[in-house]
Design a protein that fits this description.
Blueprint (H helix, E strand, L loop, with lengths): L1 E5 L5 E5 L6 H7 L17 E6 L2 E3 L13 E3 L3 E3 L3 E4 L14 E11 L4 E8 L16 E5 L6 E5 L9 E7 L5 H8 L6 E8 L12 E6 L3 H13 L6 E7 L8 H10 L4 E6 L9 E2 L2 H9 L7 E6 L1 H13 L7 E5 L1
Parallel strand pairs: 1-7, 14-15, 14-18, 15-16, 16-17, 18-19
Antiparallel strand pairs: 1-2, 3-5, 3-7, 4-6, 8-9, 8-13, 9-12, 10-11, 10-13
Helix pairs in contact: 5-6
């Protein structure tokens, strides 16, 4: 049966599916590799929307399904005939090769605020890929604990480099299997397996509009990578960072903000504190509240980049849509 993937920039990619194949399996057999992680209908990374055609959905988490008519998970979508499915990525962002799997050694673990940790890794030299850390700011990797039983997706916070250096800002979740290991047992020299880079949450370099970046939790990492890219390229585009925390102690380290301001003199920053102390001088409320207030003061609607916990991201997306920001100007990654 004939299947078609329709990219965000309206490129049509046609291929055939064998009986019993999921849409994701058929695409990969044709040399196309849409984003996917758990392959079990739970994470939502392979979310897409059916434009036309009949299908059945295998077992999956309803929370992983994208909102809107025809939302599906490619890993669980079983075509029942010809189909057209819309992806959120452009043709250039859709990989034509399988995702690399690499080994990396922990070099350092340091606190990054009251509830997060900075994890620094160095890639082992690969016979085919060398040592370089090749990715696009905004992308993420899947990290697997020693033994291979537990894996999690985390965004990169640094810039691509030839030395194989990787940096992740990871929120410490009470009882979390991966972050708990980082907080209590991980040490320099431990080896992790990495799968990536993955994701299409990257800057729209062609857009002339101001960029507003809204994050919370570990969602600061990809925004930091994007801002560092802008600073490295001396990009003059107006840019604003809105970052939400539950309390002031969880704030982004001031050293990071100082680094960004030094390279991006046009950067505006707003820290939104959900449960502020009496002496707090930052914005009182959520990141979505801060965004709503800021949007009321502009004439030109900006491009909005969103990354953070699902509830925060959904609230921010709702505010953006209600303010009239076109879907084409909203960029989001589910982590």
């Amino acid at each position: 049966m004939n299947l078609t993937l329709l990219t965000r920039d309206a490129v049509r990619l046609e291929f055939d599916a064998a009986p019993g194949q999921s849409l994701l399996e058929a695409a990969e057999a044709a040399g196309l590799y849409p984003p996917a992680m758990c392959r079990d209908g739970q994470c939502g990374q392979c979310a897409a929307h059916v434009v036309s055609g009949d299908y059945e959905m295998g077992p999956h988490s309803e929370a992983a399904l994208p909102q809107g008519l025809g939302g599906v998970l490619l890993c669980r979508c079983q075509p029942q005939g010809e189909m057209v499915v819309a992806l959120s990525c452009t043709d250039a962002q859709l990989p034509r090769h399988s995702v690399p799997v690499r080994a990396a050694v922990i070099e350092a673990l340091t606190p990054a605020g009251a509830a997060s940790i900075s994890l620094r890794l160095r890639l082992a030299t690969d016979a085919a890929l060398g040592q370089a850390a090749d990715f696009m700011p905004g992308q993420y990797m899947e990290l697997c604990l020693p033994g291979g039983a537990i894996s999690r997706a985390y965004s990169l916070a640094n810039l691509p480099n030839w030395d194989g250096e990787l940096e992740f800002l990871i929120r410490l979740v009470p009882g979390g299997a991966f972050s708990g290991w980082l907080a209590t047992a991980a040490k320099p020299g431990d080896v992790l397996e990495l799968r990536g880079p993955l994701g299409q949450f990257t800057l729209d370099e062609a857009s002339p509009r101001p960029r507003w970046m809204v994050g919370g939790g570990c969602g600061f990492a990809p925004l930091l990578s994007m801002l560092r890219q802008m600073a490295a390229f001396q990009d003059p585009t107006p840019v604003r960072l809105i970052y939400g925390v539950n309390r002031t102690a969880e704030a982004v380290p001031e050293a990071l903000l100082a680094e960004l301001r030094a390279g991006l003199p046009q950067l505006q920053t707003t820290m939104a504190v959900w449960h502020p102390e009496p002496e707090c001088t930052d914005f009182h409320g959520s990141a979505a509240d801060a965004l709503a207030a800021a949007l009321k003061q502009v004439e030109t609607l900006p491009d909005i980049y969103v990354c953070g916990p699902p509830a925060m991201s959904e609230a921010v997306l709702t505010v953006a849509r209600q303010a009239g920001v076109p879907t084409s100007q909203i960029f989001a990654e589910r982590l």
